[in-house]
Specification:
The protein is mainly beta and 71 residues long. 0% of the residues lie in helices and 65% in strands. The protein contains no helices and 5 strands. The protein has strands spanning 3-12, 16-27, 33-46, 49-53, 56-60. Strands 1, 2, 3, 4 and 5 form a 5-stranded antiparallel sheet that branches. A hairpin with a 3-residue loop joins strand 1 (3-12) and strand 2 (16-27). The radius of gyration is 17 Å and the shape is elongated.
Length: 71
């Protein structure tokens, strides 16, 4: 499937500090998301200490054919 790639990086400051990096591939014909890679690191000060949130994930479309029943 022909795809276009877009990436986005962001830095957060203030009460929550951190970075976000996201890469997305979209079907050039329909705009349907084909893949998403996301990496996040956010540090927040709390009354109990510092909290760090670090999810990393990849979502991939495995088929262009809809599934109409639960297997």
């Amino acid at each position: 499937v022909p795809a276009v790639h877009s990436d986005r990086g962001r830095t957060d400051t203030g009460g929550q500090r951190g970075t976000e990096q996201a890469d997305v591939w979209l079907d050039t014909r329909t705009g349907l998301p084909l893949r998403l890679d996301q990496h996040l690191r956010v540090v927040t000060s709390t009354t109990f200490g510092t909290s760090t949130y670090t999810p990393d994930g990849t979502l991939r479309l495995t088929s262009m054919t809809p599934v109409t029943q639960i297997r």
